Amino acid sequence: MTYFQSKFINLILFFFLAFFTTTGLAANTTKWSTNWGEMVIIQEGSEVTGTYELDGGKHYGTMQSTSAGLIYKGWWREEGNKKECGNNSDWSGTFTITFDRDYKTYTSTWGYCEYNGDEPRDDWSGSLTEGTLTSDFTDTSATTIGCSSSSTASVALNLDIKIPSATYESLGGTSNIWVELEYKGVDSDGDYIWKLKNYGVNQ
Questions:
Q1: 70 neighbors 64 (Cβ within 8 angstroms)
Q2: Are the C-beta atoms of residues 180 and 161 closer than 8 Å to each other?
């Protein structure tokens, strides 16, 4: 692939992601000060993804409204840790976060995959610094975005994106390509980041 082809694909992805962000698929974002650094929680219905600073931490799971209050159960992973459980066996351990009644602080228990929750720890806590947590859930298994008249792009619960069909115009002509984007989290400015994972030409 030439330099100009690479720049053109980057331009396609830029406009696509700009559209994706402005449509508000990451419906509600909050930031938290924790003993493991800043934590970002992104809610889409009851599904949750996000990051925390310690060792490039990521988290994923489900928000639940219970008689005890709002609870977030899911999986965590960090750079350098084994990945053995959760969705696609891509996570290092489990956690349960319990928010206080006004959703401004939380306490939690967590553990590693191999313990199956039998040896939880309770040293992960935090307080809200930005945004408002929501308990108004609308469950979705996936979100679609219009991509062309004949296909749609799919957004998984972990915010990875698959574009099955997109027009690619190069100096050599026009072709139809597919693209896969991997969600990498939120940067220090609160902008969402995707990495080009794979792409190819549709036959």
A1: yes
A2: yes
199 Cβ contact partners less than 8 Å away, ≥ 6 residues apart:
9, 177, 178, 179, 180
- Strand 37-44 and strand 143-148: the pairing is unpaired
3-state DSSP assignment of residue 23: coil
Backbone angles phi, psi at 172, to 5 degrees: -90, 0
Cα–Cα distance, 154 to 164 (Å, whole number): 8
pLDDT greater than 90 at residue 106: yes
Q: Is it the case that residue 38 has pLDDT exceeding 90? A: yes
Q: How many other CB atoms sit within 10 Å of the CB of residue 143?
A: 20
Q: 74: Cβ–Cβ under 8 A, 6 or more apart, which residues? A: 48, 59, 60, 61, 62, 86, 94, 95
Cross-strand bridge partners of residue 201: 177
CATH code, 28-130 = 2.40.128
Distance CA 42, CA 60 (A): 9
3-state DSSP assignment of residue 191 = coil
HSE value, Cβ hemisphere, 13 Å, CA-based, for 151? 13
pLDDT digits 0-9 by tens, 127-166: 999 998 887 654 443 444 444 444 567 777 677 888 888 8
Domain locations in the chain as residue ranges: 3-25+139-201, 28-130
Residue pair 72/99 in contact (Cβ under 8 Å)? The answer is yes
**pTM surpassing 0.90?**
no
- Phi/psi region, residue 81 (left: phi>0; alpha: psi -120 to 50; beta: rest), is beta
